[in-house]
Each structure stands twice: as C-alpha cells, then as structure tokens.
Amino acid sequence: MVRRMWRVTTAFGASMVRFGLGSKVVALGARPQQPLQVYEFENCPFCRKVREALTVLDLDVVVYPCPKRGPRYRPWVIENGGKRQFPYLVDPNTDTALYESNDIIRYLFQTYGAGSRPWLLVSGPLGLYAGQIASLLRLGAGTFYRKAKAPQAPLELYSYEASPYCRLVRETLSELEIPYLLHNIAPGSPKRPAFIERFGKMQVPYLVDPNTDTAMFESAAIINYLRETYANG
Ligand SMILES: N[C@@H](CCC(=O)N[C@@H](CS)C(=O)NCC(=O)O)C(=O)O
User: Fold this and answer.
1) Is the beta carbon of 68 within 6 A of some atom in ligand 1?
2) Domain ranges for the chain
C-alpha cells in the first residue's frame, strides 16, 4: 500500500517537473491513415519528449518497448536503423524513419500539427534537465528488461503521457517488452466521446488484450494482470 502510494506520487512528480506537458491536446493538423511506430523505453528522457509530442498531437502509435537487455526490438532497431539509439520513429504513411528526439518532434509538428511546439519541446537545456529529473524520480522504472513471454498480437492501451496511473502501466509494458497500440486520449482529444460511448466512462488507463479477450480499467489491476499473464515467460 505504502509502496503503491510512493509509486503514484513519484509518477505524478514526474509529470509536475515536466509542467504537466502531455495532459492536453493542442491544435491538430492532418491525421495519419495508419498508426505511427515508435521504438523507445519508458524512462528515457528523450523518449519521454517524443511521447509528450504524440499525446499533444493526439496521435495513435504502436509502441515497441526497447528496455535495456531486451531481446526483441533492440536488435530490430540496430538492424533496420543502423545504430542502438532510442527513440526511433517509423511513419509508414510517409515512409519516414528518424532518430533524434528533436528531429522527430519537429517532424511530428510539421506533419500532424497546426501550430507551434509547446516551449518545453523546443530544444534547450531546461527541457533536457526537466526530463532527466522526471526520470530520476522514477528510479529507472521501465528501463530494464524483465523476462516475459511475447504476446501473439499487440495489446491496446488508452492513455495519455502526463497521467501518473498510465505511466505506471507503461513502465510495466516497457519492462516486459510487450508491444501495444497506444491510443493517446488526453483532455481535449476528439476521440473522447467515442471512448465514453464504447466503454461507459472516461477513465484511463484502459487496457485491451485481444490475446485473452480481456479488457480492464484501473492501473493496479492492469499491472497485476500483465505480470501474471506475461512475466517470467
Ligand atoms: N540525441 C538523442 C539522444 C538519445 C539517447 O541518448 N538515447 C539513449 C536512451 S535515453 C540511448 O539510446 N541509449 C542507448 C541504449 O539505451 O542502449 C535524442 O535526442 O534522441
């Protein structure tokens, strides 16, 4: 119980030191036909900036977690991108593949935004330090691979970057190297009415696992489910 309170508090602190970035949608531009793909891990400060951009631009993305020592997607990135560096973005809509968080963010706003980037996403030392402090607060959670079995099909997670409860779930997905379609659905997202219509209320995280026909709210229940179903595979 105390451990859970500590985890939620530090996850909330990580959002606070990022000034709540990733808690609401900004002006949106063109929408992609297919979800983007990102290779990243949860506690990497450069990956965090990219996930914040994806949230504020209300973009869905297939996340391929690349925790340190992860056996599946790290080798894929090295083979296809040419180096071991994260984040790595693939946009099948425009045949684009990019390293470098600042280049990725610039690309996302140019391609899918309709306004300027939030100030914390413009490259600069403050943005970098704030990201590093956020990572420190979570003491490396989401960074290292824990042995797990791979699901047949990617899971689906409804989430937004600044939600502390969603962060805890994403950390678990990252450690277990479970790929998932991330539906970003921050306040202001035009996807919210359809979510309420379909699932009965507006609450995230919400996990769907097509492999076991399971769907659930509540971060603690989701984390237990992921560990029981996939850990130690
Ligand atoms: N300038 C790069 C820096 C990216 C970077 O240093 N990423 C670290 C993770 S935070 C990395 O790829 N480390 C190699 C590893 O994890 O093996 C960017 O902004 O994307």
Assistant:
1) yes
2) 2-230
